[in-house]
């Protein structure tokens, strides 16, 4: 099959979870003999082919609400000139999807929208967009992929008569990264002497909840644990880049100056991230806005107990994670788990079994591949 994936960022700085999700799907589809192209933002110096995936970059940014700027005509021409079997957009209210919406009726390929949460639902500035642009466009799509049966993006589609197009394909974590030991031990690398380690993995956006986690960590009131805060310090662009840096990263940095048991690590260093997952005792997640957080599935794969705010689809996994409402409750749950090795191990083993069965990238790529094949068969019939 010839497959085009359209996503805002791909192999780009600060792209976050959606970027990783699309990379894993694209590379998985290539291993099944498909010809995969990714249309995305331009990055200077990035190779045009990575791991068998062809990458075409465009100097475009924005969305239909705030305006789309740059070489948008070039991107639209590219979409119309392609001879694909399937075109997949990742996310709404982003230029890669919004420009495709404008010419969707001229694209002969099967069209699929994968919606990582629709983060602007409920934002009054985007109400008109969802009513006038989003809904009319996706009625012409052949499938709508959601990561959860219960999250708001699917509920929104179902409530607007689109339930018959819904497909559930979850998020996941990599077998090759998480099965087997890390390349080094995080304790030795960082000279950590405390008996326990807690980690949180999230780039330095304010909404990622680092303040929540730091507050909970302080409320533990114990000296036998170190907190590793792992993420890229610079995210987004322009004014937002510096806003997040000042409001989030500098707060975390300041906290680390006042406590030697709070350590900041660069999220770009993947070997370090994996070593942290495999050497930690707890994962603390304080995010305010998610869909199906990849770090949750990575904690499952690492056999690492996951303690989180009620965000995104975490309730789908409530039987083997801990969901909390406040830093105080996160501290109380963390203390209980730290003092109960058997409970930690039981949680992590159940979560690991769930990951191995349903949330490896191999299985997820298979699910996308099967979906695309079904759509093409329907087209031929």
From TrEMBL:
Pfam families: Glycos_transf_1. GO terms for molecular function: glycosyltransferase activity. SUPFAM superfamilies: UDP-Glycosyltransferase/glycogen phosphorylase. InterPro entries: Glyco_trans_1 (IPR001296). Residues 184-352 form the Glycosyl transferase family domain. This is Glycosyl transferase family 1 domain-containing protein. It comes from Candidatus Colwellbacteria bacterium RIFCSPLOWO2_02_FULL_45_11.
């Amino acid at each position: 099959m010839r497959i085009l994936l359209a996503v805002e960022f791909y192999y780009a700085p600060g792209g976050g979870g959606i970027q990783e999700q699309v990379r894993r799907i694209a590379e998985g589809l290539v291993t099944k003999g498909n010809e995969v192209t990714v249309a995305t933002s331009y990055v200077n110096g990035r190779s045009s082919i990575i791991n068998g995936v062809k990458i075409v970059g465009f100097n475009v940014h924005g969305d239909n609400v705030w305006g789309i700027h740059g070489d948008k005509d070039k991107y639209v021409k590219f979409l119309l000139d392609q001879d694909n079997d399937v075109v997949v957009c990742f996310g709404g209210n982003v230029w890669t999807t919004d420009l495709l919406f404008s010419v969707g009726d001229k694209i002969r390929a099967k069209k699929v929208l994968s919606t990582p949460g629709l983060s602007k639902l409920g934002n009054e500035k985007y109400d008109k967009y969802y009513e006038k642009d989003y809904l009319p466009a996706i009625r012409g799509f052949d499938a709508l992929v959601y990561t959860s049966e219960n999250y708001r993006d699917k509920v929104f589609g179902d409530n607007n008569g689109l339930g018959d197009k819904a497909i559930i394909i979850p998020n996941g974590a990599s077998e090759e990264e998480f099965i087997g030991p890390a390349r080094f031990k995080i304790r030795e690398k960082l000279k950590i002497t405390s008996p326990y380690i807690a980690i949180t993995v999230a780039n330095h956006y304010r909404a990622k909840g680092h303040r929540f986690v730091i507050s909970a960590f302080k409320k533990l009131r114990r000296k036998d644990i170190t907190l590793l805060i792992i993420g890229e310090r610079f995210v987004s662009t322009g004014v937002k880049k510096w806003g997040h840096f000042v409001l989030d990263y500098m707060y975390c940095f300041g906290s680390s100056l006042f406590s030697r048991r709070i350590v900041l690590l660069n999220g770009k260093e993947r070997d370090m991230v994996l070593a942290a997952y495999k050497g930690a005792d707890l994962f603390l997640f304080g995010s305010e806005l998610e869909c199906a957080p990849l770090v949750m599935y990575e904690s499952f794969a690492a056999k690492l107990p996951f303690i989180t705010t009620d965000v995104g689809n975490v309730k789908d996994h409530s039987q083997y994670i801990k969901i909390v409402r406040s830093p105080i409750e996160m501290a109380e749950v963390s203390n209980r788990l730290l003092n109960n090795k058997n409970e930690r191990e039981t949680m992590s083993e159940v979560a690991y079994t769930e990951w191995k069965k349903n949330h490896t990238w191999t299985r997820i790529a298979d699910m996308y591949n099967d979906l695309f094949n079904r759509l093409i068969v329907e087209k031929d019939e």
